[in-house]
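Troubleshooting: if your tokenizer reports a length mismatch, compare your output against this known-good record of 585 residues.
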Amino acid sequence: MVNLKKKSPRSAVLLRVLSYIRPHLYKLAASLVMALIVVALTLYVPILIGRAIDCIVGEGQVNFAALKGILAQIAACIGVTAAAQWLLSELNNRVTYDTVRDIRRDAFAHIQRLPLSYLDAHPTGDIVSRMISDVDTFADGLLMGFTQLFTGVMTIFGTLLFMLTLSPMITLVVVLITPVSLLVANFIAKSTHDMFTLQSKTRGEQTSLIDEALREQKLVQAFAREDETLAQFDEINERLRDCSLRAVFFSSLTNPCTRFVNSLVYAAVALAGALAAIHGTLTIGGLSSFLSYANQYTKPFNEISGVITELQNALACAGRIFQLIDEPAETPDPAPDKDFDRIRGEVEIRDVAFSYTKTRPLIEHFSLNVAPGQRVAIVGPTGCGKTTMINLLMRFYDVDSGAIRIDGRETRTLGRRALRRNIGMVLQDTWLSAGTIRENIAMGKPDATDDEIIAAAKAAHAHGFIRRLPDGYNTVIRENGDGLSQGQKQLLCIARVMLCLPPMLILDEATSSIDTRTEMKIQDAFATMMQGRTSFIVAHRLSTIRSADVILVMRDGHIVEQGTHEQLLKKGGFYAELHQAQFAG
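Known-good structure output:
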């Protein structure tokens, strides 16, 4: 498979497109047959019209018997052509949208396999633009190519064949002038490819900004950044306008340039045909047929030049979507391990190093041993690596060096699904999807009964507010839980973990958005749930971790202190400073 991670030549993109079309070759072959029928009958009609004209010798000298037969043939040709044209369009549509379906399917499936590092580093709007706008543009160009390219090429060769049977000399005049049209179209097509590539890239940048501005509209308004956001949008919008105008202007030159050349062809045919008719080497009906062929011969060049322009745009968009598909996926999981379905929760972290950006070290020489069922609290200033440790435990990211072992098995040798199935997470950032309250709670256990879901909601103290919703547990919420308060969304995430009860727990500021009274109740529920389960608790509020078996104090990616709450206070070190800063009042 052609790799398109870097800017790829058009030939590589075209070969990649053809690989997606290959499964639909039988439809493409049927389309070619229909195109051949359409072209053959369309080109045969001028012959019949010429014969009909020759049946009219003069006033009162019309061969009506022959004329009726010719008109019947013309009607039959038109009927069959219409049916073949409909089948041609149907087949081309199916090939195009089946191909687009396959590309979108592969792109979306690949997104599911991309590492979080790629998704974190690339704007969501740009990825969405590639998946939707670029693929739609590619589909339009591909459909135009199938619809007009085949028939156009066949029409050119067909008209040449028919013209040769009428007058080889006049046909030679047509052939000699034709290359001028091809050279003009080719020059413009090469010039517009880079312009359409820039247009697609700028459109993706604009989509990214719009997506971010809509999702963070409250943030924009809270800090009165409307004018700055609008100015940023205007700058990108202006660049998109400029590059779109350039691309469309240069591509629109194709039609008038080729039409000018085609008019020269028509004029040359008319002049040569008239001289031939005067000298008796061509009949009036033959001249009429020849002029019709000259018009039909030049028309496909206009269409093909337009198709080539659209294909430049389509290939530029296809290149962007293939770049996404060719991005390296996360390392594949090993074969499923049935012995890892249920873990004890022993965790060993040995000399781990990790950084999001290789030039900026974050965690270095990190080591830790956690016994099964132990409650480990992680505290420290913002940016010290607390949440990063959670990302490494869940294998959202893999360590740069060192190893993390669970029950003696290195996490990189375990399947991500099996690992994550054994760990329950409640974060400060809530994860809710569009659907009912019931579906969101049961996300980790889809086969849960109503009684189990209600029991989990009660344990999380979410049952009360859920009952007050219009449809209770069947209330439909939008993506990210819009319409619910931040505290209510966090209670639903807690209920989700209460339902699954995995052997390991990760609580990262799990009650940060909940009122103090409800938090005290939930802390009791957490204490019950954490019994016998290895738990990692990330907290800024030190009052929530006093009962932890061990507290890790992190600073600049290192563990600087370790012990219980009382031991660390007596030590009078960095933890004591954090505690004093929180409770000085």
